[in-house]
Design a protein that fits this description.
about 325 residues; alpha/beta; eight-stranded mixed beta sheet; two-stranded antiparallel ribbon; 10 strands; disordered N terminus; disordered C terminus
């Protein structure tokens, strides 16, 4: 535990993955585990990283200041942070929970909408790029589809060695293979090859840390502000010839979830695929702003800020932390 306390100044994702949390989520009911994690999370934002909490509130205010009062913005900030904790609770629950309880929970509480769009693309023999964002119960997206019969290989980037170990163990249990992108020499090429071979891959359209702008630094409007457009998904689609479908797992009332799949709208007036996908995400964020847990990085998406450089020139722009390939 002493070693874990050295993590107090690191990013929230690593802080919430201290080793004792894996044990707690393996034995306590989900509601109690979530309550515990929220308490730990508020400790993080209340004592260790108040600046990040203020940044989330400031970014939310940039979008909603003309629609909400100051009190409502503070309330939305609290709800957003609580949903962020729930995201990490779902990540730990999925990794640590007893197998039968985990499978039963996913199968009972996730409702599917639009699976026919995915089935049509698969029947045509194309690779399929399922595009999502840092929204809702993202962690349940691959397993929900797996339990529906879509066999998969998972490409992942892990924040901790403990999470990597447990994820591999769980993947073996349900027949998944994991490609560790941190050790892969060319993950972007691997993703293109998977799509060329007719597989189904999930990527995120809002992974700003890895965005690669177009040469002319093309911009679009997102949440009422001018933002830089990422070119990587356009490149992947062009090179692979894959179909594109949006996929979001929305949290509903009474601890239920809706996995919503839609065919991507056709680009018009010279739009890039990246622009169209940001518009699809925008609809969800405007409707369920508390379920988008990337508010902390919204200011980095703005045109005047500029997209930050990739972590490595060999890394793809699509989110390696949540990148999945299906057989």
């Amino acid at each position: 535990m002493v070693g874990d306390l050295d993590m107090l100044k690191v990013r929230l994702s690593q802080f919430l993955q201290i080793r004792v949390n894996f044990l707690i989520f393996s034995i306590l009911p989900l509601r109690l585990s979530l309550l515990y994690l929220k308490t730990l999370g508020w400790l993080y934002y209340g004592l260790l990283n108040r600046k990040e909490r203020k940044k989330i509130e400031r970014n939310i205010s940039m979008v909603f200041q003309k629609m909400l009062t100051s009190r409502q913005i503070k309330s939305l900030t609290r709800k957003t942070i609580s949903n962020t904790f729930r995201h990490y609770a779902e990540k730990l629950f999925q990794t640590c929970r007893f197998y039968r309880n985990w499978v039963k929970y996913i199968q009972a509480d996730v409702e599917f909408k639009g699976l026919e769009a995915l089935d049509r693309a698969v029947e045509e023999g194309k690779g399929v790029l399922l595009v999502t964002g840092h929204f809702g119960a993202l962690e349940f997206l691959p397993t929900s589809l797996n339990f529906k019969g879509y066999n998969l290989v998972v490409m992942a980037k892990f924040k901790t060695e403990k999470l990597k170990l447990l994820s591999r163990k769980r993947a073996d249990r349900i027949g998944l293979s994991i490609i560790d992108c941190q050790n892969h020499p060319a993950p972007i090429m691997a993703s293109i090859e998977c799509l060329k071979n007719g597989k189904i891959l999930i990527a995120e359209c809002d992974e700003i840390d890895s965005w690669r702008p177009f040469p002319d630094r093309r911009t679009t409007t997102f949440l009422g502000h001018s933002v830089v457009v990422d070119k990587t998904i356009d490149l992947v689609v062009k090179k692979s010839g894959c179909a594109v479908i949006t996929a979001y797992v929305r949290r509903d009332e009474k601890d239920r979830y809706s996995l919503i799949l839609k065919e991507m709208a056709h680009p018009v007036n010279g739009e890039s695929i990246g622009e169209v996908l940001l518009k699809s995400l925008e609809e969800y964020v405007y409707t369920y702003p508390e379920q988008w847990y990337h508010w902390v990085k919204f200011d980095a998406m703005l045109e005047d800020k500029g997209a930050p450089p990739c972590e490595s020139p060999t890394q793809p722009s699509i989110a390696l932390e949540s990148l999945y390939v299906y057989k």
